[in-house]
Amino acid sequence: MNRYVRPVSGTLLRRLALTSIIANVGIVVTGGAVRLTASGLGCPTWPRCTDDSYVTTPEMGVYGVIEFGNRMLTFAVGLIALATVLAVLAHRPRRPGLLALSVAVFLGIPAQAVIGGITVLTNLNPWVVGLHFLASMAVIAAAYALWRRIAEPDGPTVAVVPTPLRALARVTTGVVVAVLVVGTWVTGSGPHAGDHGAARNGLDPETISQVHADGVFLLIGLSVALIFAFRAVGAQRAFRAAIVLIAVELGQGLIGFVQYFTHVPAFLVGTHMLGSCLVLLATLSVQWSTRERRPVAPTPRTATPTDAEAVPAPA
Fold first, then answer.
1. Could you tell me how many helices (H) and strands (E) the chain has, helices first?
2. pLDDT tens-digit series, residues 51-94
3. Under a CB-based contact definition with an 8 Å cutoff, are residues 132 and 9 in contact?
4. pTM assigned to the model
5. Nearest to 20 by CA among 66, 85, 68
6. Contact 281/145 with Cβ under 8 angstroms?
7. What is the rounded end-to-end Cα distance, in angstroms, of the chain?
């Protein structure tokens, strides 16, 4: 490494990774604000804001400012991800696996931005809007994996709970993903399309909301099972993570029911989007709590004879 470049500490690296998580959650919330203020076509084309300008114009009013502002935030999130990649490269000693995760986060941001551009070019097609949200969830998951991996040693991964409980945790994660996917279908069937003329996905809002609620009930049941199972085997770290997960799920479920019975007010929809990010993060925390990495075993040194052993003593 160049002697003029100072190696990056693990503490700084982890702070950058945490900042990346927060920034990606933040852009989900601001993206929701674009939709909830009907500013989704504030910039009616992409990658330009208009056919003649890359930036918003006074004629576009507040809707253009909101949409263009969210686009600019993507650059800020991307710079944080780039800084994290460079920090991983500058860290000494090199850590296996960190570079791949940091690059995945960095590349996920422009990919997510391209999907966002497609939503504009398709006049806020609800299926593409849902994919845009799910892409953000994938980037958040990668950023969380990087943050947790930085704090771990580089040895082998070992389970700290029995195999059936690890399988139960994976099933719970799968149900979380399904609930998030169906949640985008609920959003695509209801109000707050992002623009007053945007199409809806054609699903019956009441029916698809019931499917979503059924998934939430299943998720809560699985999470409660995890709590009792982890406690029974004495896995305290996993038990605490499951407690946090059920608390976040109950809060998110309460917001969901209130917003449904109050005719989906914009503020609660935005809060529900933030809650979706927190449910994902809490679920990933449970996954990480079921295993741990051990330190790398020291390489055995090859025995060499001492001078006394190598030279025979005089007779």
1. 9, 2
2. 888 898 887 889 889 998 989 999 999 999 999 999 999 988 88
3. no
4. 0.89
5. 85
6. no
7. 54
